[in-house]
Amino acid sequence: MSSSPLTFYNSLTRSLEPFVPIDPRLVRIYTCGPTVYNYQHIGNMRAFLFADTLGRVLRWKGFPTKHVINITDVGHLTSDADAGDDKMEKAAAAQAKSIWEIAAHYTAAFKGDVARLNIDPPAEWTVATDHIPQMIEFARRIEQDCYLIEGGLYFDTTRVPDYGSLARAVSDAGESRIDPVSGKRHPHDFAIWRRSPPGEQRQMEWDSPWGKGAPGWHLECSVMSLQHLGHPFDIHTGGIDHREIHHPNEIAQNQAFCRCDDTGARLWMHNNFLVDRGGKMSKSTGQFLRLQTLVDAGFHPLAYRMMCLQAHYRSELEFTWENLAAAFTRLKRLVIARDGLRARDDGTREGDAEPYLARLEEAVGDDLGTPRALPVLDELLADKRLSPATRLQALGDFDAVLGLNLTTLTRTELRVRPVTAIVTEAEIDAQLAARKEARAAKNFARSDEIRDALAAAGVEVMDGDALAWDWKLAL
């Protein structure tokens, strides 16, 4: 790969910055992972697709990476601030299961979605409850910057320089959505350790110098990133919602721990929201869009990946079924184009694909500009000046960056059966065989009758296409 520079947007400075690794031999990345009290909605998954694209670009550029994603199984309240119940405790009570069962089930579901979206697994999954002793020790180290109230140990945010600079929160009004907690000195202060309420036993609680209880949510990421990546590491990623409270609190803890101005990471990168105007993106209502919802409607999971790649990660992206269908169609066309090249490939290498690879590098090197990279791929596949073998080889580079599985994905795999389908694949094949016989006998009325019956059942007959048929998806 060439020495063309990488430029990323640093949320801390609100500016584009050339990427210079701390150690070129290993770029260290930390991503805030899920709280495993429920399935992840597709808006949550956008953050992991963004982080995956970041890692893919770095590795394609020749930088080995160590990527850590945490699993939060304790400490995260129903509010991102300091009020409400623990999400895990609440889910366990609602489902009459243990927290450990809840965590195991939803962790497995999340990792399943990661695999279906072709997200490369991180070097390490770190689990919050595996790090309780380290969290207590970290809290001891910063205890001089904290104070004890009835609810537990709280961090005094006036003890660190420029608190909230990541979120640009410079006044109490800027953090007005943080609910008040009795005894807090300042509205921004946050829990390091939460005491269990008197007379109440939590499913997850531990002894500590500040009473029996559980760690605050923000403490977890500081501790796990420090242990597994060291401070400072190269890049910290997360959703833009983390930029307002969670990440400023992480930074404050890190600065108190090191007794310095270091935030813990050189770059803080955040993806923007996925917006559903229909209002079904939030898990709080109990009705939300998850990856399985899209699959049940007949969409391959990689159609969602394509939809995300078509927008810049820092841009708000609106989810509609029409947008998803358009992305799915684009993905299918890429697979068809690849199949066409393979059918004509005689192994001859003719033409130079380097200009296309240079344009790919320029696009993704400019703050992960995947929307600019996709049209370059379309041009590459259509360029008849290059032999099929040359184009297919270059396709491998694009696929390494975009993660669409274009080197292995088949059209049959893209034909996802909707849960509403009323006919089986075997019945469809039988009807198509009967239609072929009718056409051979020049019984075109019968042929049209079978085609129309299949259409009424949600099946599109595709004469002259090797796939023969596909599902017609209802939007």
Task: Give an overview of the whole structure.
This protein has 475 residues and is of the alpha/beta class. It has 15 helices and 15 strands. The protein is globular.
Task: Tell me briefly what this model is.
Helix content is 41%, strand content 14%. The protein contains 15 helices and 15 strands.
Topology:
Blueprint: E1 7-10, E2 15-18, E3 27-31, H1 42-60, E4 65-71, H2 87-95, H3 99-116, E5 124-127, H4 132-141, E6 146-149, E7 152-155, E8 190-195, E9 213-215, H5 217-229, E10 233-239, H6 246-258, E11 265-271, E12 274-275, H7 291-296, H8 301-309, E13 317-318, H9 321-344, H10 354-365, H11 370-382, H12 388-402, H13 411-414, H14 425-440, H15 444-456, E14 459-461, E15 469-471
Parallel strand pairs: 3-4, 3-10, 4-5, 10-11, 12-13
Antiparallel strand pairs: 1-2, 6-7, 7-8, 8-9, 14-15
Helix pairs in contact: 1-12, 2-3, 4-5, 5-6, 8-9, 9-12, 10-11, 10-12, 11-12, 14-15
